[in-house]
Amino acid sequence: MDERQALSSFAALSQETRLQIVRTLVVAGPEGMAAGAIAEKLGVSPSTMSFHLKELDRSGLIGQQRESRSIIYTANYDALAGLIRFLTEDCCAGNPHICTPAAAVACHSPSPVEKKA
Amino acid sequence: MDERQALSSFAALSQETRLQIVRTLVVAGPEGMAAGAIAEKLGVSPSTMSFHLKELDRSGLIGQQRESRSIIYTANYDALAGLIRFLTEDCCAGNPHICTPAAAVACHSPSPVEKKA
DNA sequence: TCCATATTTCCATAATCCTTGAATTATAGA
DNA sequence: TCTATAATTCAAGGATTATGGAAATATGGA
């Protein structure tokens, strides 16, 4: 992931509705969710939803595919993983020696998922 | 890190100059860097730099401390790590079973740092 | 073909963000 | 105290972003 893409991804995630869209699609899984269903779930108008979905699509964090009359949106896990990696490298990669313990935890330990399990 | 803080952090990182400030401070390490030095390095005016530093400070991604006439800014590694964790949990935690291989790499594998070493 | 559904695009408005220059505050030294 | 340095704050502008309603596009079924 290059800087331009990262900037675009951060911008996409910096808006409450869009962050909730991403969360919703991550939870929805590979099956995804229709635009209207997301709009209803989050309580925003169709045109506003369309605006935000387009923004997320342009940033690459989600994808879309038409299915009959609906357009199904799905989270792009690769892009999310790429963004995490970008952030991780900016945090530690160039200078692991200056990482504080907390930063080191994020960079070198088992993930929170494993800790919770 | 709660959602409000995450939104604020994403907004802070979604602006080119601010992202470069964070990068610069991460590289600078715990010693930090004076506002003027960052401004000169990045080629922006003092007031613009001040505006962005304040924004980053409000989001918690950087900290400041006066040293004689200068104000020294430092990256907040804990906050960066917290943001990485927030993103990681949104990506995988609630539903590790739907992680694609690429996402799983970001969530469960050794960090890129270790791979590069 | 006609109608209903699902979504997007267009438009106008309101809000927020970014930048700059001028004025202000804080510190240090002569 | 006076001057220089280092930053911030303020005010004004131009640019971008967010929202919702109305109109347009695409699909499927009677």
UniProtKB/TrEMBL annotation, chains A, B:
Pfam families: HTH_20. The keyword Transcription regulation applies. Signal peptide: none annotated. One of its GO terms (molecular function) is DNA-binding transcription factor activity. Residues 1-95 form the HTH arsR-type domain. InterPro entries: ArsR-like_HTH, HTH_ArsR_DNA-bd_dom, Metal_resp_trans_reg, WH-like_DNA-bd_sf, WH_DNA-bd_sf. Gene3D superfamilies: Winged helix-like DNA-binding domain superfamily/Winged helix DNA-binding domain. SUPFAM superfamilies: Winged helix' DNA-binding domain (SSF46785). Keywords: DNA-binding, Transcription, Transcription regulation. The keyword Transmembrane does not apply. This is Transcriptional regulator. It comes from Neorhizobium lilium.
